[in-house]
Amino acid sequence: MRLFEKIKLHTMDSTKSRVILVLGKPLVYYQREHFFKSFTFAWNLPVKNTSIPVFYLKVNRLADYTLPCIQHWINIINNTGADFYFLCDNKKLQNEILRWICFPNRNVKFISSWRKKLKKIIFNIGTKNWIKATAAHLTSFYHAKQQKITKFWTIDADDTMICQYPEKGAKFLQQVELYAEKHNVAACSLDMWRSRTKGKHWSFGVCYVRDMVDFCSIFDRNEDLSWISNYLKLDTAFNLDWFFTYLKEKKNIKIESFYFSNCYFIHWGSFIFNPIGASVYYWENGKLCLPVLAEVFQKKDLGVFKIADCFKVDIGKPLSASLDFLLNEATNFHRFGPEHWKLHSLEKIANKSKMRY
Predict the structure, then answer these.
(1) CB burial of residue 183 (10 Å; 0-12, 13-18, 19+)
(2) Alpha carbon of 81 to those of 27, 33, 74, 131: distances in Å?
(3) Hey, what's the torsion of the CAs at 84, 141, 244, 248, to 10 degrees?
(4) What's phi and psi for 46, nearest 5 deg?
(5) Digits of tens for pLDDT over the chain (357 positions)?
């Protein structure tokens, strides 16, 4: 690790911005405008607007799909006008994000998991294999409370992708926010596991939280792991997802799930080797469909489910519109040359990419 490092930032406002890192941590952001430079220390980067939800982008995994996922989330956030934090414990990934992601401006904030500060609480919620992930999830709640952020999204941004162009993805999220406000929902999360476990498991992933419930106080008062006794017939390892399942079922807190109607969604990973943990999803006609399991493995019982107790988010677009994004943006077809497009009959797909991640 270098003592000092300077990285050029790519910004949508076209300013010449740089970040100086000291021992791997962003310290100073500066930009040149005409003949002048302006400097900002990392700890002084502001949350510009807390009247709309702030996004916590949880990132840790560096794979070939990581940076496209992150860029897509940044583009969606930019269409909402919201602010964001990266919650990252991986210095190598942090630097790759700073080098390659194009940001709205130089206001790029990183925080680390509060593992030491929240140690006792973490071990009363997460079991051995889920300690780091539980620490990251909890940090977003405690940080938001500390910063007086009343509404926030917590996103697994390194391996999830809504297959909609950014302006449409932003509209989906805003519809979730409106529903939660209207129906007094404390937390609601995308249907990544709810329907496929037939309503038994609530999970994080893409989640919206409101401070109508003081979740941090609930975490503080939870003294041990005795709560997992309710779920020992369903799983062997437990995390904040299961704790929220417990809060929903046993404490009657209004925690819900939602789905995007007529939309593809990707939870990236090894779709063949790990077809349960990594999936391509779509929701259509009241069904959650996992096409790899349903069509490649020919297991309809594992790949098609009736949507469970989730509310629908619909922006009135057909599934084909989301499929266009999947073909043109989620694949790497556009990276091939014209010769390969012709060889593989990709001319009508590869040259339609708008994002070019």
Answers:
(1) exposed
(2) 25, 23, 11, 33
(3) -100
(4) -85, 155
(5) 677 788 888 888 877 888 888 888 888 887 776 666 677 777 777 676 777 899 999 999 999 999 999 999 999 999 999 999 999 999 999 999 999 999 998 899 999 999 999 999 999 999 999 999 999 999 999 999 999 999 999 999 999 999 999 999 999 999 999 999 999 999 999 999 999 999 999 999 999 999 999 999 999 999 999 999 999 999 999 999 999 999 999 999 999 999 999 999 999 999 999 999 999 999 999 999 999 999 999 999 999 999 999 999 998 889 999 999 999 999 998 888 889 889 999 888 877 888 877
Torsion of CA 213, 215, 221, 226, to 10 degrees: 110
CA distance 16 to 18: 7
Burial class (CB in 10 A: 0-12, 13-18, 19+), 134: buried
DSSP string, 176-203: HHHHHHHHT-SEEEESSSTTTTTTS---
Residue type (1 letter), 128:
K
